[in-house]
Amino acid sequence: MHITIVPIHEANDDIIFFEEKSCTEFGNVQLIPKGEELIVYIGIGQDSLTLEDIRFLGGISRKSLTNAKEDAAVSAEFSLIMNRAENPELGQVISSFMEGWYLAEYQFSSYKRAPKLNQLTMRWEEESLREYDHAARIRANAVNLARDLCNEPANKLTPTTYAERLKQVFHETDVTVQVIDGDELVSNEFAGIHTVAKGSSEPAKLVVLTLARDASKEKIALVGKGVTFDSGGTNVKTGKDIGEMKMDMGGSAAVAGAMKLLADSNTAANVVAILPLVENLADGNAFLPSDIIRYRNGLHVEVGNTDAEGRLILADGLLYAQLLGAKTIVDIATLTGSIGSALGLKAAGVFSNAESDLWHYKQLGDQTGDYVWPMPVYDDYLHYLKSDCGDVNNMSSSPYGGAITAALFLKQFVEKGIKWVHIDMANTVRPWREQGYYVPGASGFGVRLLFEMVRSELAQSQI
Ligand code: BES
Ligand code: ZN
Ligand code: ZN
Fold first, then answer.
1. 330 near 220, Cβ under 8 Å?
2. Which residue's alpha carbon is nearest to atom 13 within ligand 1?
3. pLDDT tens for residues 186-203?
4. How far apart are CA 230 and CA 228, in angstroms?
5. Is 230 in the pocket of ligand 1 (CB under 6 A)?
6. Is 210 near ligand 1, meaning CB less than 6 Å away?
7. What is the pLDDT of residues 175-186, one digit of tens each?
8. Please, which residues have CB within 8 angstroms of residue 444's CB and are 6 or more apart in sequence?
9. What is the pTM of this model?
10. Furthest-apart CA pair in the chain: how many Å?
11. 376 with 387: CB under 8 angstroms?
């Protein structure tokens, strides 16, 4: 069988096939068999199309064909989408459509007796178009790596198996993988990581991924929260949704995906990724509320709440990034429930000590589909983090602005002169909607955004 994808809008002659006008609406799909051929009509609506709209169209096209069962060759008509695209560049249009297509193809079926998905191959009449398809494949693969990691249940993805998995993923790439664990964590002063992991029988791992293709470039560090399960510790979480906390390593997954994308796209970067991996459980060895942790910079942190564990391990990551000489640090984490209360589920929060860059990141988010919205880091809130016993408390005394006080806590570990960006993605680790290229399970949030942030830093440092 051969399949043809035909975008349509109201001015199309093709709509005489349909009784209902609504099939020309954005996102509507109609499958019409014509002998040996299947025509897929997709409505593109009335308005101009963003790259995300085009990814969405690619996603729904692919999803409409999963029931076709048969393997088939596909061709697609892009001219109408091109005419409507806000940014009518053929390469970007094709790449975006195919990115949505491949992201929609994803399924997490490791533990299911699922039937195999039908194989559909795009036919490219012109050889030159194949490179855009290839770029989309690389991007989607990296996002799907992050999805895979997030979807793994906590008994399958422990800090140990996670570190092993990363070794496999980056085997025979330009990315080197170093794992720091055991006594080395203590002797090298990774106090936060060591402390949080104490209550679990799963040993902590600090994974360092290095891509030094161009060492002349300024070093950028990506730090990702990797809590493979967050029970809350002694401040145990209650409620039915605690199973969600298998995805509390979403930040580290985003960083791993971005490193894969940088590696596979041959980007000449100088990037180090720092992934603290721990499980937050409580047994007789667990850390306790009121405990004091001494960090390598001499700061003493009082544990006000063992469920605010993410910031404790990220603090080690931030300090280590500076020790390794990074001048720009981006951290990403499923850090607070509060960010979802502030922004809902569509956009993650982005914070920085270089405020003027925030709108630029917002723009990169809009382009990539990994939406972020600027948030403040008010130093005036620092008194909420005061500690009777140590220098700073990991828990705010205020019930308000929890995402901001979490960011402010992290800022205490960033030296002057270092550019620091923090992304709180607790609300976006799952998709905000299941339409388009999103599928059940994790969103794969952050991979494409971090990749573009690194590329944008590289471009800026060249000026
Ligand atoms: N992992 C959670 C944050 C989270 C919440 C992620 C919902 C995904 C969905 C984090 O470790 C946490 O528990 N944060 C606390 C902080 C509080 C104790 C200061 C929170 O947000 O309630
Ligand atoms: Zn927690
Ligand atoms: Zn957590």
1. yes
2. 307
3. 999 999 999 999 999 999
4. 7
5. yes
6. no
7. 999 999 999 999
8. 103, 143, 144, 146, 147, 150, 253, 254, 257
9. 0.97
10. 78
11. no
